[in-house]
Amino acid sequence: MAVGLAALLLVLGSALPAAAQTPASELEARALFEAGEAAVAERRFEDARRLFERSLELHPTAAAAFNAAVAAQEQGDGPGAVAHLDRLLAGALGPLPAGRRASVATMREEAVARLGTLVVHADGPGWRVRAGDQDLAVDGELTLYLAPGTHPLALTTPEGATRERVVELTAGERRVIDVVLEARVQEAARPREAPGSGDPIVDGPAPGDDVALIVGLTVAAVLAVGGGVAIGVAVYADGQLPADFVGRAETLRW
Known about the structure:
The protein has helices at residues 2-13, 24-41, 45-58, 62-75, 78-89, 98-113, 182-189; strands spanning 116-122, 127-131, 134-138, 141-146, 149-156, 162-169, 173-179, 192-193, 200-201, 213-221, 248-252. By secondary structure, it is an alpha+beta fold.
C-alpha cells in the first residue's frame, strides 16, 4: 500500500501551483504536503495525516484530501477516511476526472465494508445524536460510520430530553434507528372536527391512549463490493409490528 501511495502522491503533488505563483499560505501548504509524502514513505501515518490535513486547511486540494484519507485508513481510522472521501465525491474540492473518481469510490466502498453503518431517522428537526466525540444534528436522516464494536449513543429530542443506549456494530453491518416523539404521535391522532358537521374525525388512537414508540433496529449485511439490502423501518403503535418485520425493536418513550 505504501509503495503505490508514494507513486500516487507524486502525481497528485505535481498539480499544485508553482511556488512563484502562490501566496505564503499556499507555499506553506505545499511544504506541508511534501512533508506528508515523506512521512508516508517512512510509514509514519499519524504524522502524514496531520500534515496533509493542515495542508488541506491552508489550501484545499483534492490531492491533500485523498492523501489524508489514505493516511487515516492506514492509521486505522476508517470513519475519518470516509469523511475525506465523501468530501471528494461530493465535489467540495472540485470535479474529479472519471478515472480518479472511480478510484476514490472504490476506496470508499472498501473502507465502509470494514465499518458498521448507523442510520438515524428523525420525525422532525431539532434532534441530536451523540456517538463518541461526535455531537451531530439529525436533519431528517443522519448516517454515521463507526468502527466495529460497542458504542454509547445518546439521542436528544428537540425539547432537550436525552435517552442513552448502547449500540453494537460489526464490520459490514447496517443498522437503522427511527425515533419519533410520542407527543407528535398523539397530536396526529387527536380527533378533529369534520367541516360543517360538528362530528370529530378520529385518525388514530384517542389522545389519552398510551402510544408506545417503536424504534426499529434493522440489520442488513453490506457486501464488500458495496451492495446490501435496504430494509424498511417504520414506527408502529405497541403490539402492531407487522408479521414480516425483520430486525429487532425496542420501545422508547419521550
